[in-house]
From TrEMBL:
Keywords: Cytoplasm, Redox-active center. PANTHER family: GLUTAREDOXIN. It comes from Hibiscus trionum. It comes from the Eukaryota. Belongs to the glutaredoxin family. CC-type subfamily. InterPro entries: GlrX-like_pln_2, Glutaredoxin, Thioredoxin-like_sf. One of its GO terms (cellular component) is cytoplasm. Its main location: cytoplasm. This is Glutaredoxin domain-containing protein. It is found in: Cytoplasm. SUPFAM superfamilies: Thioredoxin-like. Residues 36-99 form the Glutaredoxin domain.
Length: 126
């Protein structure tokens, strides 16, 4: 696996290597490999907003752009099942734990629970 720095200044984009045939297993494995992981679509405005939020906080998330992965549709379907709603991205994991979509991330940010989660995961050193 190689890391490719993002020219926009947020996180690292990582090519998704073959982990296994089960998309849910693949999502869980990828989500546990970094302190903050975002599953995204490159054309999604909410995905862009959540990446900017973390960047603005000084966090460098690992971002998986599902529309640029040959098996991204399968992972997107797995994320939909995991969330149980109609919008699969963005999906954020912190410390390997599912935080949720944009609404959950923003609620955590507003109520003050996001920063402690980031500190606990080692993504933020304030």
């Amino acid at each position: 696996m190689y890391y490719q720095g993002d020219s926009w200044g947020w996180g690292y984009y990582m090519p998704v290597r073959s982990i296994g045939p089960d998309p849910m297993e693949r999502v869980a494995k990828l989500a546990s490999e970094s302190a903050v992981v975002i599953f995204s679509l490159s054309s999604c405005c909410m995905c862009h907003a959540v990446k900017r939020l973390f960047c603005g906080m000084g966090v460098n998330p690992t971002v998986y752009e599902l529309d640029q992965d040959p098996r991204g549709k399968d992972m997107e379907s797995a994320l939909l099942r995991l969330l149980g709603n109609s919008q699969a991205v963005p999906v954020v994991f912190i410390g390997g734990k599912l935080i949720g979509a944009m609404d959950r991330v923003m609620a955590s940010h507003i109520n003050g629970t996001l920063v402690p989660l980031l500190k606990e995961a080692g993504a933020l050193w304030l």
